[in-house]
Design goal:
Keywords: Membrane, Signal, Transmembrane, Transmembrane helix. It comes from Dactylosporangium fulvum. This is M23 family metallopeptidase. It is a single chain. With 212 residues, this protein is an alpha+beta fold. The protein is 15% helix and 33% strand. Strands 1, 2, 4, 5, 6, 7, 9, 10 and 13 form a nine-stranded antiparallel β-sheet that branches. A hairpin with a 2-residue loop joins β11 and β12. The longest helix is centred in the first third of the chain and has 31 residues.
Length: 212
């Protein structure tokens, strides 16, 4: 009589297989975590040669006020209306956010006193490499760029508006190093805006110009 044939694995073999699978899963998780964490532990690279995020030759007022938050900069043109003015990339990089920060609200050129939104409204964030980022908030309309897109210095990102938590049309702008806000530099010079304990304004002329 032929004995019964079984395909059931011995308990020890099954344990080894399960252990191997779990081990591979742990290794994969460690590698994935390292891919995310290791770049964050690296020191930031040199400051990029940021330019004002507005067209070449224009003069704008840079300012802050109590409660605005340290290093935050609001930009207003010194000549003409702010509504709809071009907002340009300060430096080349990859777009990491392009959409709505908070909510848009209802302030438009036709209804400048409409309801405020929340946060930054229409906005763009750019990664410039070396753990440097810039942010552009309160844009008039949906950004003219998309997440993942490569932009060059001077490329238009959107238009000046008053979406989000904004009292008047302007561009709210930030420079970040290692995810922390720092004093903004333009054309190699510091803006002087470091604290929000007092109102402060300064004017700067844009050198965000096309290559010669």
């Amino acid at each position: 009589m032929i004995g019964t044939v079984t395909t059931k694995q011995p308990a020890r073999t099954r344990t080894r297989v399960v252990g191997a699978v779990v081990g591979l899963g742990v290794v994969a998780a460690v590698i994935a975590a390292a891919v995310v964490i290791v770049p964050l532990l690296r020191p930031p690279g040199p400051r990029p040669a940021f330019q004002l995020p507005v067209p070449c030759g224009e003069t704008w007022q840079l300012g802050t006020y109590p409660g605005h938050d340290d290093f935050d900069v609001d930009l207003f043109p010194t000549v003409g209306q702010a509504w709809g003015r071009p907002v340009l990339a300060s430096y080349a990089g990859a777009v990491t956010a392009a959409g709505v920060n908070g909510s848009v609200g209802g302030r438009t050129p036709e209804d400048p006193d409409g309801p405020r939104g929340r946060g930054g409204g229409y906005w763009v964030e750019i990664d410039h490499g070396g753990r440097w980022e810039t942010q552009y908030l309160h844009l008039l309309e949906p950004p003219m760029v998309r997440k993942g897109q490569r932009v060059e210095q001077g490329d238009q990102l959107g238009k000046v508006g008053s979406t989000g938590n904004s009292g008047a049309p302007h561009l709210h702008y930030e420079q970040r190093r290692g995810r922390e806000k720092v004093e903004t530099y333009f054309d190699g010079s510091p803006s002087g805006i470091t604290h929000d304990d007092a109102e402060y304004t300064v004017t700067r002329k844009s050198n965000n110009c096309p290559p010669a």
